[in-house]
């Protein structure tokens, strides 16, 4: 029996590298990884050693898990306000060992970024025919010089883990289609993607459909045993994960944090398009060029799937309405996108001997160098460096506020926060998330203004916050629409002085207790 879809062929004329070429390749990859680590640590210094606020939401769930309260934001309240379970679980061992969880997350992020760069180079050479040292250098340097990739590797979130798993799952699935005797490790990698980011589940389902299509014979799907092993493994792991989510948090399709941020609608899509145009088009739209070769998917399936994964991620960013950051959603596709672009260039060169002439190759190398410099400047000095620099003071003060509340506020105090990570994590107090990432009531609201505000910051209910939650302390409540005008705010709260970036409102009783202990502004 023969398959309607061919197995993934080896790249044409791929010869084993000479020893000197192998040493040069290792040196290039090592230099790129060193550059990535240096850039990431530069962003860490720019952010005063801290992670971004969203990372501390995960750290709060991690802290409660490590101390026996379970995967919860507030003890006793089961709300799935995170969407990166695998990242939290990977940080559990260092937390249990007493390590600094912030530093551990940053070191793990840089390590995942380095591994993604190295694996992208390996996969580009093995699957996509990128044989030249210049091509491998491009694959390694595009993410290594990216401000997006460096900043979000050090931000304390799962971004670079997502990048690594995306490359690894894509690479492994094509290795398995080339050699059906291999174990279906790719199924576990796609399942890990589903446990790392919400879009990982979409990618896993697409991978299942792809492997089923590859094994279709005589009109019968999943005709090959290796495809059945892959599907059974993937479905079993993902099903167990989804059942555990439902059993622990109750019936729901998406994490509460996703429901609070995302809403389908024309306005969100328009905002998503504007976001992609502003933050992706200039530096990285070229990474979508391999989509033009999808017509050759049967001849070069690895290149086609890499291009589809990159393009699909960009379309998904449009669909969810973008993000509040510059490049958090684009960073994970950079290693795979670089490999796909280099593979497309190698494909064109193989089909046009004139493109392999020395003068053409030198010109292409110079153009690539200029492009990398432009992408670095756009995503770094004009992008994440400015973004991180603007928010460094805000975030550092929030951590000081959290520590101050831990030392001076009663242990039963309730705080309401606009930024739900740093202050709740550092204070250890009961926290109400006014944007609903960790509050099921607010996440379920569907305001008519969705798609017109800042992505991820559009849902709120000041009446619910002030009359039902009745917090003792409110941080940055003025940023919540309708909060300033609510009569309950003026009747019960007064603002504490002495804070440069964050406005703190407290009840009269808490004002008497906290005012004498206000920390000095550094």
Features of this protein?
single chain, 522 residues, mainly alpha, 2 domains, five-stranded mixed β-sheet, 20 helices, disordered N terminus
Distance between the termini: 74 Å
Tally the beta strands: 5
Biggest sheet features? 5 strands, mixed
Strand content: under 5%
Average pLDDT, all residues: 91
Contiguous helical run count: 20
Unreliable parts: 1-7, 12-16
Query: Which radius of gyration do the C-alpha atoms yield?
Result: 25 Å
- Strand line-up in the sheet with most strands: 2-1-3-5-4
Tally of discrete structural domains: 2
Class by SSE composition:
mainly alpha
| Helix content estimate | 55-70%
Q: Summarize the helix and strand pattern as letters.
A: HHHHHHHHHHHHHHHEHEHHEHEEH
Could you characterize the architecture of this molecule?
It is a single chain. 48% of the residues are buried. By secondary structure, this protein is mainly α. It is built from 20 helices and 5 strands. The model is unreliable at 1-7 and 12-16 (pLDDT under 50). The chain has helices at 19-46, 53-66, 85-96, 101-127, 133-144, 147-153, 159-178, 185-194, 198-214, 225-249, 256-261, 266-284, 301-319, 334-351, 358-408, 422-427, 440-443, 462-469, 487-492, 508-514, and strands spanning 414-417, 430-433, 473-475, 493-496, 504-507. Strands 2-1-3-5-4 form a 5-stranded mixed beta sheet. The chain folds into 2 domains: 19-389, no CATH class; 392-517, no CATH class. Helices cover 61% and strands 4% of the residues. It is globular.
């Amino acid at each position: 029996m023969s398959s309607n879809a061919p197995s993934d062929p080896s790249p044409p004329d791929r010869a084993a590298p000479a020893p000197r070429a192998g040493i040069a390749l290792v040196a290039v990859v090592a230099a790129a990884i060193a550059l990535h680590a240096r850039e990431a640590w530069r962003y860490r210094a720019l952010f005063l050693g801290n992670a971004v606020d969203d990372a501390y939401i995960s750290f709060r769930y991690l802290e409660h898990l490590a101390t026996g309260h379970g995967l919860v934001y507030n003890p006793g309240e089961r709300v799935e306000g995170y969407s990166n379970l695998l990242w939290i679980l990977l940080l559990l061992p260092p937390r249990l060992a007493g390590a600094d969880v912030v530093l551990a997350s940053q070191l793990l992020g840089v390590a995942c970024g380095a591994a993604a760069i190295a694996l992208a180079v390996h996969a580009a050479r093995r699957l996509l025919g990128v044989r030249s040292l210049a091509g491998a250098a491009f694959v390694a340097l595009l993410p290594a010089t990216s401000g997006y990739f460096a900043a979000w590797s050090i931000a304390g979130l799962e971004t670079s883990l997502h990048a690594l798993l995306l490359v690894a799952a894509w690479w492994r699935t094509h290795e398995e289609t080339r050699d059906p005797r291999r174990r279906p490790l790719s199924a576990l990698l796609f399942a890990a993607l589903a446990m790392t980011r919400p879009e990982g589940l979409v990618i896993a389902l697409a991978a299942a459909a792809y492997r089923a299509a590859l094994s279709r014979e005589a009109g019968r799907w999943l005709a090959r045993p290796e495809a059945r092993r892959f599907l059974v493994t993937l479905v079993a792991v993902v099903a167990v994960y989804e059942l555990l989510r439902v059993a622990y948090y109750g019936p729901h399709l998406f994490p509460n944090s996703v429901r609070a941020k995302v809403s389908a609608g024309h306005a969100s899509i328009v905002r998503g398009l504007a976001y992609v145009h502003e933050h992706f088009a200039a530096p990285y739209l070229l990474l979508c060029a391999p989509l033009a070769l999808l017509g050759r998917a049967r001849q070069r399936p690895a290149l086609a799937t890499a291009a589809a994964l990159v393009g699909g991620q960009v379309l998904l960013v449009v669909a969810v309405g973008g993000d509040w950051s510059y490049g958090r959603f684009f960073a994970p596709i950079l290693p795979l996108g670089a490999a796909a672009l280099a593979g497309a260039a190698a494909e064109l060169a193989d089909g046009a001997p004139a493109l392999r002439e020395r003068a053409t190759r030198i010109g292409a190398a110079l153009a690539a160098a200029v492009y990398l410099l432009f992408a670095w400047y756009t995503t770094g000095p004009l992008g994440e460096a400015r973004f991180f620099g603007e928010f460094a003071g805000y975030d550092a003060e929030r951590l000081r506020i959290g520590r101050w509340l831990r030392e001076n506020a009663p242990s039963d105090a309730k705080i309401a926060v606009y930024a739900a990570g740093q202050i709740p994590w550092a204070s250890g107090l009961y926290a109400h998330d006014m944007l609903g990432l960790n509050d099921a009531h607010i996440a379920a609201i569907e305001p008519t203004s969705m798609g017109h505000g800042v992505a991820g910051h559009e849902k709120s209910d000041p009446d619910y916050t002030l009359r039902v939650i009745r917090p003792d302390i409110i941080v940055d409540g003025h940023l919540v629409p309708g909060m300033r005008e609510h009569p309950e705010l003026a009747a019960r709260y007064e603002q504490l002085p002495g804070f440069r970036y964050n406005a703190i409102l407290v009840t009269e009783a808490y004002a008497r207790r906290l005012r004498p202990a206000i920390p000095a502004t550094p």
